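Q: Here's a chain of 518 amino acids. Please give me its 3D structure as tokens.
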Amino acid sequence: MSPIPDQSALRAAAIHRLYTLEQSEQLTRTRIIGVADAFGVHPRTVEKWLANARANNGTYQPQDRPSFTLTPHMLDAVARWRGNATAAWRELRADGHPVPSLPTFHRATSKALTPGMRAGLRGGEKARRRFDVAGERDRHHRNYAWETDHVEASVKVRVEGHIRKPWITFFVDCAASAICGLAISPQRPSREAVLVAIRDAILIDKHHGPFGGIPTYVRVDGGKEFLCATVKEALGALGTQIIALPPFTPEGKGNVEAVNGAIKKTLFAGMPGYTHAPTLRGNKPVDPDQPLLPFEEFVRLVLEWVHRWNHENTPKSLQGQTPRQAWDADPALIDTVTAEDLHTYTLERHGKPLIISNGGVRWRNRNYIADWMHGRVGENVTLRYLPHHDHRIELYDPQTGRHLGAATMAGQATREQGLSLKRARRREADRLRARLRKAEKDRNTRYAAATRPALPVPLDVMPEEEALEHLRALDGFDPAAEALPDLIQLPEPDADWTLPLNPNTSPPQPRTHPEDQP
């Protein structure tokens, strides 16, 4: 379908032709009527256009209709009111700024701000991105480019008595829209999940299926687990180039985003514990006692869904083919790597070589032993490990890189001991949480509601005696220990009381008369 021509450019060309004919004295009324019919106007309108061309040396220059344009101050008011043109118009009018009528102000706002900009003023960058235009990349051939991303399952599952929402890491081939590999984590994925997913995506065997091989490019977002040194080293050893996309650009990896959206709608929505299920009033769940799936059952259902996606799903971009059919029809060669070499590449490497001692290999204040270490005490080995898997390490010859074998942690705690330790930690954390909540509740001050502008009135008033008692308790004040009797005036004794004698004073002498003296 041909594009619609620009009427202004056609009009200018037609009027220039009439002007040329007029200058050569060949312009007739019939030609003017023909141009008027072509543009659907009256012949007098064409004569006005021709007069405009005469005034501008043969160039038709239409005059734009006068229209109102927002000033920078008005645009600031619209932005301040989050794109609400009516509220901005009221504020400007109340401040005495000259403004047109409200409909004119709305038309000027629509002309000055694009729909995406207006949506961004209302809802931020995420809302603005809905109005962006994204192109579509060429699919090329299989294993030319992969896309990877994490997706949080919208389902709550049980993991050893805990309720968690698992995460899935997908690797999707862009040419066939096939899911080459994945890793499912009960917690937020780290570089360990990325390495496991890479290994699962590259391997081609009975367990992993026909999808796999070494890709030329891998598109990732700005997640640190995708751009860490371990993942770069693993993919770099295979000759794969990592393309880091700008953050918050899902249109840059549309294939894996389509997989994320499909699994949410076609699998998670039908599982028990779906977090986006309809709720009752007060956001209460319809069935609060609904049993949740165990983690291992969740993994089984996800793997079944991945098999259906690869072998039964027919995306529109594949023109009716399934990802398996598109993969098999692609003639591009597949570069592979052995499972042993891939296992080495997808492990994180410890820096300096370690020495095998009588207690095994000492790493991170722990001893790792294996039966193949007998007779090798004193030899140097290179250590590789899977992040967060401290129970097992892999050891290699530092000179040749040959894999010597695995080693396990010596004196590992039993499963029951580990569970008891976790329960003790949770109890301690609960006690600390309760103390912090109580302290925060005592610290916060509640104020009375107001209907007029006034200072806030605190509601946590108490009697004076109770306040003094709290102060004494907080300051460690003990009234019994600090009592001073001489600071309290005692009442005068009654007249009939017998007063005690002061031992420090001499007794009174009896008085004698003068005549009794010799």
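Q: Can you summarize the key feature?
A: The two ends are 160 Å apart (CA to CA).
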